[in-house]
Structure formats: structure tokens, C-alpha cells
């Protein structure tokens, strides 16, 4: 007969301890209890537990101390904090100290049971192959080694994670890895680009709506929170959320429940929040463009994904992996990078990061026939003459958009008419902006600093579909 899984419950209120013991026992767990820090430490020294639940306030200290000790001394034991209702600061502090999750008093038993199930699933997930993270995020540089180690740690938690990094570094890949390595791997991973949803539809998209709640609502529709129930909700480009929506999102995260548009009651949801943006979120908070309380709520743990130019030692191996994948899709032999090609890549700043590297290599593979790629096959943008930053930026945009950047080099304009050259720059900049904003034309116009009507005219004029 297999050993019964066990839990340690630490609370100085007898009725709370009894409620928790009764609930967990019905889930098949053997429970030990402690009424203070000293008793809890003694129990941990004598026994091994699959889960620990501890109150925030204890007679001889804070439960935060116990969270920190368990995280350090017993890292295989997930620990969850019991906090006072509405005490978000305490919950965030517990998560930063290493808590797996938190539950508020008075204890909601369905929420508690979900928490326990996730904790036990996590215990099993840790037995899986630890090399899985490495297979998703390639790189032997110190920056990538540190990133993978941090991901392995945060995957054990339920804490919200904010993923910071430039466009093209792989923020969504980091989010998917955190989900895949955690206890929610069997649940859904739901990515959403916050900049791609019209503001008037945001509440319905996030929280769902009831039939007849507004014109066009012909049936009940679940929102993104309901779709992600039991799994992970990834808020990409979270900086694009308008302030009114930030208020509603904060409440949904804090209360772990949502109210669909047109509904009279709230529905509980069990989601882990991961978020990302290429913008400086702290700066936006300082400027009053992003709510500080929401920033602190989603930024319990911050992960910084390094740009490609800061880990150039990864270029040879990363390029080889990308070429291998592309060649397999095309059914051809994997070409090698020549020494001159590798040198050219190491000297290029990669404003579009890994995404741009993939575009460059895909284009080179499509245009070359040999088994070795030379520097000339890469068609890397050359530095703009006269220090023209606008042309240089457009050249970077062309590279990221997968176009031939040689048409943008001012030294080549002697052989082409000036209007055609300017038109090519304009086309490249617009296509790059469209890609960056997931083809949301309103956001694209804002990013380019022009009106929506002007963008629509230019799209028609330039023949961009």
C-alpha cells in the first residue's frame, strides 16, 4: 500500500486547525498540526511533508519566517500562507519569500482544495526530467543559465511573474516554459495580446458576457479568465491595458473571481497570472500611465530576458538550432555558417533579437543553394551613412520584417530614384510596425505617430494587404 501523503498545518486558532485537518483528511492526506513557530520547526525536523499551510500571525513570530525557512531547508515541501481577507501586501510578501500560494480567511474550501491539488501535482512534477527547461530555452551564456535556473524556481510557485525584455527576445517562450514546468501543466495556457483587443470589448473578452447583455451578445460567452481556469493566463504587452481595465483586472486577480458582463454574481476562477511587455513598466507607473497597485500585484517576481547582443557567445549554437529546424521544414540538408557569416552576425546589434535572427537565417536559407552560408548570404543591414538614425531604424525594421535590407542602404541610392527609395523605407517601417502590433491598425498608427486615416491611406498607396 503506498504511503499516505501528509501535510503540516500551522495556526494558533484551534477551530481553523480543525477545519483544515477535516478538509485535507477528506482529500486523503495525513495531517499534523502546530500552534506556533517552535512547534512547527520541531515537526519539520522529525517528519517529511508534501505540503505546509501556515498562518501569517503566530504567537512567537510571523509565518513569513517559516515560509523562508521551509524554502531554504525543505525546498521539496510547497508552503502556502493563510492571510487575513484583503491583506494583499501580506500575500505578496509571502510569495516573494517563497510561498507556493496563499489563501485568505475566512477560508473558502473549494479554493483551498484547488490549492492543495496544485501543490501535490507540483510535488509530482518535480520528479520529471529537469533538463526540460534547457530544451526550450537554448544558451550556454551566464545570462541564459541564470534565466533557466530562475525559471525552474518560479515554476514551483503560483506567484505572478512579470517577464521584462525587448521585442523578439522570447518572452512568450519563457511564459510557456514556466507553465510547462509547473503544477498547472495539465491545465490550459491562454496567451492574450492586450494591445490587440479594442478597449470597448476588453471587459467582455477578459470576463465573458451573458446573452443579451449588449447588442450582438446572442449567446453566453466565457472570457479569457474562464478559459484559463485551472491553468495560466499570459498577459502579453500588459502595458497596453487602458487604466479603467487595469482597475477591473486588479480586482479579478485579488479576489480570484470575475463577473461576466450582464451577470448578477461573480464566478470563482483559478488562474496563474504571467505578464510581459517590452516597455519600461516602472517608468509608466511613475508617469501615471500604469496603476502602481496593479504593477506590484503582477510584479511579485520579475524575470529579465537578456537581449541577444548581451549573449553573443550563444550565437553559433543558437544559429545551428534555428537552421536545423528550418532545413527540416524545407526538406534539405542543414547548411553550416561560414566563419565570415558568424563574424558578421557577432558584429550586428540585433535590434529585433532572436526573432530577427530567425528571419535573417530563414531568408538566407531561402536564397542560397550551397551547404555553407557566407556573410553575403545574410544580407545584414549596413550602417546608415551620415549617422541618419531614421534610416538605420528603418533598416532594422526591414530586417525584423524579413525584407532585403540592402535596398535601404543610402550608398545604393545612386542606382535608384529617390522617391522609390523613400517609399521603400516607408513600406518597411509600416510592415515592421504592423508585425510588432500584431496587425492591429489602431496600435500601429499610434506607434508610427500618425492618424488611423493616414495609415489607411498609406496602406492603400503602398499596396500593403
UniProtKB/TrEMBL annotation:
Keywords: ATP-binding, DNA-binding, Nucleotide-binding, Phosphoprotein, Transcription, Transcription regulation. It holds the Pfam family Sigma54_activat. This is Sigma-54-dependent Fis family transcriptional regulator. Residues 137-366 form the Sigma-54 factor interaction domain. PANTHER family: RESPONSE REGULATOR PROTEIN PILR, TRANSCRIPTIONAL REGULATORY PROTEIN. Coiled coil: none annotated. The modification 4-aspartylphosphate is found at residue 55. GO terms for molecular function: ATP binding; sequence-specific DNA binding. InterPro entries: AAA+_ATPase (IPR003593), AAA_lid_NorR (IPR058031), CheY-like_superfamily (IPR011006), Homeodomain-like_sf (IPR009057), HTH_Fis (IPR002197), P-loop_NTPase (IPR027417), Sig_transdc_resp-reg_receiver (IPR001789), Sigma_54_int (IPR002078). Residues 6-120 form the Response regulatory domain. CDD domains: AAA. Transmembrane segments: none annotated. GO terms for biological process: phosphorelay signal transduction system; regulation of DNA-templated transcription. It comes from Marilutibacter penaei. Gene3D superfamilies: 1.10.8.60, 3.40.50.2300, Homeodomain-like, P-loop containing nucleotide triphosphate hydrolases.
Amino acid at each position: 500500500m503506498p504511503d499516505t501523503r501528509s501535510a503540516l498545518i500551522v495556526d494558533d486558532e484551534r477551530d481553523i486547525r480543525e477545519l483544515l485537518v477535516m478538509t485535507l483528511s477528506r482529500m486523503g492526506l495525513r495531517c499534523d498540526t502546530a500552534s506556533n513557530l517552535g512547534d512547527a520547526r520541531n515537526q519539520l525536523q522529525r517528519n517529511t511533508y508534501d505540503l505546509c499551510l501556515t498562518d501569517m500571525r503566530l504567537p512567537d513570530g510571523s509565518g513569513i519566517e517559516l515560509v523562508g525557512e521551509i524554502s531554504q531547508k525543505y525546498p521539496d515541501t510547497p508552503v502556502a500562507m493563510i492571510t487575513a481577507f484583503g491583506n494583499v501586501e501580506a500575500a505578496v510578501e509571502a510569495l516573494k519569500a517563497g510561498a507556493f500560494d496563499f489563501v485568505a480567511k475566512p477560508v473558502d474550501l473549494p479554493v483551498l482544495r484547488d490549492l492543495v491539488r496544485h501543490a501535490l501535482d507540483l510535488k509530482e512534477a518535480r520528479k520529471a526530467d529537469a533538463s526540460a527547461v534547457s530544451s526550450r530555452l537554448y544558451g550556454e551564456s551566464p545570462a541564459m543559465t541564470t534565466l533557466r535556473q530562475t525559471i525552474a524556481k518560479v515554476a514551483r510557485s503560483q506567484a505572478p511573474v512579470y517577464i521584462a525584455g525587448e521585442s523578439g527576445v522570447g518572452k512568450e517562450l519563457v511564459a510557456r516554459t514556466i507553465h510547462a514546468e509547473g503544477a498547472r501543466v495539465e491545465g490550459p495556457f491562454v496567451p492574450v495580446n492586450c494591445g490587440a483587443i479594442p478597449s470597448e470589448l476588453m471587459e467582455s473578452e477578459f470576463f465573458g458576457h451573458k446573452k443579451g447583455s449588449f447588442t450582438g451578445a446572442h449567446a453566453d460567452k466565457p472570457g479569457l479568465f474562464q478559459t484559463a481556469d485551472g491553468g495560466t493566463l499570459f498577459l502579453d504587452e500588459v502595458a497596453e491595458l487602458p487604466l479603467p481595465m487595469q482597475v477591473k483586472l486588479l480586482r479579478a486577480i485579488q479576489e480570484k473571481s470575475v463577473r461576466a458582463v450582464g451577470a448578477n454574481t461573480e464566478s470563482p476562477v483559478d488562474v496563474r497570472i504571467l505578464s510581459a511587455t517590452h516597455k519600461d513598466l516602472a517608468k509608466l507607473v511613475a508617469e501615471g500611465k500604469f496603476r502602481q497597485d496593479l504593477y506590484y500585484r503582477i510584479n511579485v517576481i520579475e524575470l529579465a530576458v537578456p537581449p541577444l547582443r548581451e549573449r553573443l557567445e550563444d550565437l553559433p549554437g543558437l544559429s545551428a538550432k534555428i537552421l536545423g529546424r528550418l532545413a527540416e521544414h524545407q526538406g534539405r540538408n542543414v547548411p553550416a555558417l561560414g566563419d565570415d557569416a558568424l563574424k558578421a552576425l557577432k558584429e550586428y546589434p540585433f535590434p529585433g533579437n532572436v526573432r530577427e535572427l530567425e528571419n535573417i537565417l530563414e531568408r538566407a536559407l531561402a536564397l542560397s543553394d550551397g551547404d555553407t552560408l557566407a556573410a553575403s548570404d545574410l544580407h545584414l543591414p549596413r550602417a546608415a551613412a551620415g549617422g541618419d538614425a531614421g534610416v538605420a531604424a528603418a533598416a532594422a525594421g526591414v530586417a525584423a520584417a524579413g525584407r532585403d535590407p540592402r535596398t535601404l542602404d543610402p550608398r545604393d541610392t545612386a542606382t535608384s530614384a529617390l522617391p522609390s527609395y523613400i517609399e521603400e523605407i516607408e513600406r518597411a517601417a509600416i510592415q515592421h510596425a504592423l508585425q510588432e502590433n500584431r496587425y492591429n491598425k489602431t496600435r500601429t498608427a499610434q506607434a508610427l505617430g500618425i492618424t488611423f486615416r493616414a495609415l489607411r491611406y498609406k496602406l492603400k498607396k503602398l499596396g500593403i494587404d
